[in-house]
Design brief:
The complex is a heterodimer of chains A (87) and B (246). With 87 residues, chain A is α+β, with helices and mostly antiparallel strands. Chain A is built from two helices and three strands; from the N terminus they run E-H-E-H-E. Chain B is built from six helices and eleven strands. The chains are: A alpha+beta (87), B alpha/beta (246).
């Protein structure tokens, strides 16, 4: 089985996010006065082959822990969807 | 003559400054390509500043899987002095050779300026020849230099005398004003300031030379006894292959 994976990497609460802060500060100049709490992050997409969804999720969680995130400052949210394998 | 190996990653940019500083102080220094699997006959290793592997993903995240890192972990575990300066410090935290992480500066800006530092521990190879409380003027040059760690780690760093340098006037929001830390044995040190850029009065300050001199004298002497503390996570062969072609 093949799964389409979306990993959203976000800075943990309390970790400085200069991009988010700068975007938020610039919004009033464009007339958007009611936006708050802007936080930026990364979206990483890939496909993974696995026996089932649980196995795919285990592999992706391990990948996130060891490489895609630094657990000291970042969290990851993983979304999986089965996709067709071309024959 | 004490030999220092300075690791060159794709994107390093302070390696020649470190080589010059070491040679000016009477040591010998050579570059080590990150794709090497052996540090060679060196007495100390320096991971210099720059943007290893473009800082892609996170500073140090890809560099920690460079082939040379397994040899550096073994060198460090054997008591060999390993210094990470700026991007090198970020690599050492990503490699789990030092705890914590470097997040973006509190003031939201890249900082490039001389800062005053205070020597807070003399048990590291980088500060063994200095005096506790001694003040040094050394430049910083970073965006991700704001040291952070959980409360438990901070207590451990304090209790075990592992905070090597603190900023006198905290420029980047680092927890407890931390500018540099060391491992339990004192032979692995990471710091954000650049001693090599303050190694001659022509550069505005020669205070960094005392740190480099301390490293050279420690590297030439006996090594501390070490015990594996379980912090190191080795790259698997597949992970090493990830960066071997770069």
């Amino acid at each position: 089985m093949r799964f389409a994976v979306l990993v959203e990497v976000a800075l943990r609460p309390g970790i400085a996010d200069p991009q988010g802060a700068t975007i938020e500060r610039s919004l009033p100049a464009l007339g958007f006065d009611h936006v708050s709490g802007v936080r930026t992050g990364k979206a990483i997409r890939f496909s993974i082959d696995a026996d089932g969804e649980a196995s795919a999720r285990d592999q992706v969680d391990e990948l996130c822990r060891r490489f895609l995130t630094n657990p000291v400052i970042e969290d990851a949210r993983v979304t999986l969807a089965e996709e067709a394998v071309p024959r | 003559m004490t030999r220092v190996g300075v690791v060159l990653f794709p994107g390093s940019n302070c390696e020649h400054d470190v080589v010059e500083a070491v040679r000016a102080l009477g040591g010998d220094a050579d570059l080590i390509w990150h794709g090497a699997t052996d540090v060679g006959p060196v007495d100390a290793v320096v991971l210099p500043g720059g943007f290893a592997h473009g800082d892609y993903l996170r500073p140090g995240a890809i560099a920690r899987f460079s082939p040379i890192m397994a040899a550096i972990e073994a060198f460090a575990a054997d008591g060999g002095p390993v210094i990470g300066i700026c991007n090198g410090f970020q690599i050492l935290t990503e490699a789990r050779l030092l705890p914590g992480a470097l997040q973006k500066n509190r003031g939201l800006t890249f900082l490039c300026m001389p800062v005053e530092l205070q020597v807070c521990s003399t048990r590291s190879v980088l500060t063994a020849d200095l005096t506790l409380g001694q003040r040094l003027m050394i430049p910083i040059n970073h965006f991700e230099g704001n040291y952070t760690c959980d409360g438990e780690t901070l207590s451990m760093l304090k209790d075990d005398d592992r905070i090597v340098l603190r900023y006198v006037d905290n420029p980047n929001g680092s927890v407890d004003g931390i500018a540099g830390i060391c491992n339990a044995e004192g032979n692995v040190v990471g710091l954000m300031p650049h001693p090599e850029r303050a190694s001659d009065l022509l550069l505005g300050s020669a205070d960094g030379a005392s740190l480099v001199r301390s490293l050279l004298s420690a590297a030439g002497g006996p090594r501390p006894s070490t015990a594996a503390d379980g912090m190191g996570i080795r790259a698997t062969p597949a992970e090493t292959a990830l960066t071997a072609r770069a």
